[in-house]
């Protein structure tokens, strides 16, 4: 009796469960942290960070609130750039604290969490399929 497929299924299952758990935890933690960022505004992409060795850049977004101009850096890098200079983007920040603003789009708020959840689901599904096929062959 060969235990290789069972160990492989166990590995996929553990990876999937860990990724799914971490992704769900991070997603709901992010959702809980968002309400203090109740002020919503609009910024304009004014440039990009210097590219890293692979050519990835993050957007620099400028917006003005209460006579104060603030420039923030997006949290997700991409190559090619995900935005164009001059493009309008949503921002969120705590009341009276525009310096703590974040880009308020899916990519910057949820992409990492959703990717982890997706990898987790894929790992669990792969484990179940491997076990199903192994048991069917036996």
What does this structure look like?
This protein has three helices and five strands. The chain is elongated, with a radius of gyration of 21 Å. It is an alpha+beta fold and 138 residues long. The protein has a five-stranded antiparallel beta sheet, with no helix packed on it. It has helices spanning 4-33, 106-109, 111-137; strands at residues 39-48, 59-65, 68-73, 88-93, 102-103. It folds into two domains: 1-35 and 110-138; 38-103.
Task: Give the arrangement of secondary structure elements.
Elements (H helix, E strand, L loop, with lengths): L3 H30 L5 E10 L10 E7 L2 E6 L14 E6 L8 E2 L2 H4 L1 H27 L1
Antiparallel strand pairs: 1-2, 1-4, 2-3, 4-5
Helix pairs in contact: 1-3
